[in-house]
Amino acid sequence: MSLYRLVYYSENRISSSVADLQAEVEEILTQSRRNNALVGVTGALMFSSGYFGQVLEGPQAAVEATFERIQQDPRHGDVALLEFAPTDTRSFDTWAMAYVGEDSALFAHLGPETGFDSDKITGEALFNRLRAMVATNAAVA
Amino acid sequence: MTNVKNSMASCCISELSFQSLCMLSPAEKLTTGRPSEGPDGSPPSVATTLHITHGVVTDVAGGPTDLFGGRAVPGKPLVDLLDEAEKFGFLPGGTAASINTALAARQSKQLLSLADGRSIMVATEFAAADDMTLHFVDVSFAVQMTLSQQRDVLTGLPNRVELLRRLNEHLASPASLPQTAVLYVDLDRFKMVNDTLGHPIGDALLKLVVERMQRLLAPKDVLARLGGDEFVILQAEGEQPHAAEVLASRIIEIVGRTYLLQGHSVQVGASVGIALAATDGKTPEELIKNADLALFKAKSAGRGTFRFFTDAMDREIQERRALEIDLRRAIIMQELSLVYQPQFEIDGNKLVGFESLVRWSTSERGSVSPAQFIPLAEETGIIDQLGEWVLRTACKEAARWPEPLTVSVNLSPVQFKSPKLVSIIVGALSSAGLPPSRLDLEITEGALIENTETVLLMLNQIKAMGIKVSIDDFGTGYSSLSYLQKFPFDKIKIDQSFIRSLETNADSAAIVRAVTALGKSLGMMTIAEGVETESQLELIARDGCAQVQGYLTGRPLAADAAAELISTRT
User: Fold this and answer.
1) Residues 2-21 of chain A whose Cβ lies under 8 A from any Cβ of chain B
2) A71 shares contact with chain B (CB less than 8 Å)
3) pLDDT value at residue B29
């Protein structure tokens, strides 16, 4: 079974209150960790300035099914699929879904560089950023 | 796969109209206690018949597939028997309670779904106060039949028949009318997915589309598949038209998100037409038809959008139909005619030929613009007949001209879809006795967009006969230059939009210059159309254009007048 990696970002559609947002992100994480563990999907999720960025890796069919569930979720929109391709290795193999949270310092750095606010962001850039953030462990929940 | 089907069937049974099932079912005859043969002619496999007196089994008749595995014996209380059957797995959990409840309420029919997928009808005859006969009959076949008649096989959704039934049922209560909307959903670019990735992926995509739409529906809404990539939603409850608008927007957004299928990333869109039950139709058929009309408008507005039905749409379609009928008649009744606009060499004012243009006028409508009836003819297929008439008439009239000038005839892209086009052209020339070199066929880039290879093959045949081929409206398409490479056109006709803006727009002048230079180096003649002023003529002459056509040098003329002009000008 071939291993695939998928990278996307999307716009948050959850109501703007901070408490709501936190609760929803918690729920998204709980759900995705449970589902992902069952089907062998690993990855990382970030949330920043109104956007979600996520990497999924795992068997092709499992990644497709997981992404389909994500696509059906009304809590986000304007989903931009940046990468969906075979890969040799997992980069988040210990994480059913790592969460790198919303670290304003980190994102202040990320914002202008990879530009969540522009459409110049690439799958590679987002993937590298997430990997670096998980590696530093600083913001991983 | 089988499992999915079974679970689909069992979930649908509860939705089935009990009556419609009984109409198909051999169990219908059970009200008289005697089942006759099944729908396929075979005897129904009566699983078990129990006679019960004072709540105790007094008589048992087991069929080849005894439902109770031999546990139904005289003397056993029915309650115990049912409990045992449940315990040992002959009946699914909860069945005993529901049978007991039904019997207490003296319900004569009840449908059970067994774990193995079979459907069992419990038909009860209540003979006396404490005396009854229970027939447990396998009606799986009838249930399957009913399902297949009401359901779409691929998605398991209600089909058109079932949708109409549900709509009828729903519209029967006047209170629901103001809250009800019918949404006609059609996928954009689905055919392309099927064509490029194959039907298995197309089918998988349809299932995901259905899943996405279903998640957006309220419990009482009905989603039906009418075939292909066409769906209809009965929105049962909502504050209209707001609710329908919200649902349509959500469908367009969510269905339009990327799909991943077997390693492919697939994108389709959705267009939606909406009809409201309160105002847009009295019958289910009319509501669906009007939602479809609105869908047509949504599609022509650029897809990926929704439209509400309006009375204007209905009027428009009626008018269109009337126009279509009139146009078909016009061809037979000779209400059409051709006029000829002269074409000149740019220096010397030498007359070189005419472009034939079709005109239509009727006593009721007056003169109808070609911009109105040509697109209609193209959409309805009338263009083949109309195009042939134009070809024959132009050749015939040109053959009578005093000098052998060229006659240009426009061909619609649609005409290239007919494999008979080349022979129609040959026929027109030979019956008129016109030499092929005097005919100039004008085509637009539109002709080369689809089936390019086939069209090029036809054009090469045409050219090999000595007929001239020109490219019309040049510069308005998306890839004008690439077409010049594909076929050696005799003439490039620079679109009049560039000529009209020559004096005001420097870009237009640059384009005209570039096209004439291009024509020269490719060995193609260039002609400017729509020339209306002296200064435009000066500019195109300066820019190297070879020929001119327009109101300035000559308006379109009737056939006789054209012949007369030839006599005086050559």
Assistant:
1) 4, 6
2) yes
3) 36
Q: Which of B554, B567, B356 is nearest to B472 (CA)?
A: B356
> Residue A129: what pLDDT?
82
CA distance B451 to chain A (A): 32
Q: What is the rounded CA–CA span in Å between residue A33 and residue A35?
A: 6
Residue type, A109: H
In CATH terms, the superfamily for domain B341-357+382-569 is EAL domain (3.20.20.450)
Q: Which residues of A touch B204 (CB under 8 A)?
A: none
A79 touches B at CB < 8 Å: yes
Q: Smallest Cα–Cα separation from B26: which of B57, B47, B5, B51? A: B47
Residues of chain A contacting B215 with CB distance shorter than 8 Å: 72
List C-alpha distances in Å: B538 to B300, B503, B504, B515, B544. 41, 11, 14, 16, 10
pLDDT tens readout for residues A88-139: 999 888 888 888 776 544 444 444 444 455 456 788 888 888 888 887 765 4
Residues of B within 8 A of A72 (CB-CB) are 211-212, 215, 254
Does residue A84 sit at the B interface (CB-CB below 8 Å)?
A: yes
In the chain, the amino acid numbered B484 is: L
A138 to chain B nearest CA, in Å? 33
Interval B113-154: pLDDT, tens = 887 778 888 888 888 778 899 988 888 888 877 777 888 889
CB contact under 8 A, A74 and B262: no
The tokens for B343 are 């074409």
Domain boundaries, given as residue ranges, for chain B: 2-145, 151-309, 341-357+382-569
Compute the nearest-CA separation of A82 from chain B (Å).
11
pLDDT of residue B21: 46
How many angstroms away from the CA of A60 is the closest CA of chain B?
Answer: 7
Give the Cβ contact number of residue A63 at 10 Å: 24
Q: What confidence tens digit (pLDDT) does each residue in B225-282 have?
A: 998 999 999 999 999 999 999 999 999 999 999 999 999 999 999 999 999 999 999 9
The domain at B151-309 falls in which architecture?
A: 2-Layer Sandwich (3.30)
CATH number for the region A3-136 comes to 3.30.70.100
- The helix (H) or strand (E) run that includes residue A27 is helix A18-39
Indicate if the pLDDT at residue B24 is higher than 80. no
* pLDDT value of residue B407: 98
CATH match for B2-145 among 3.30.450, 2.20.110, 1.10.10, 3.40.1350: 3.30.450
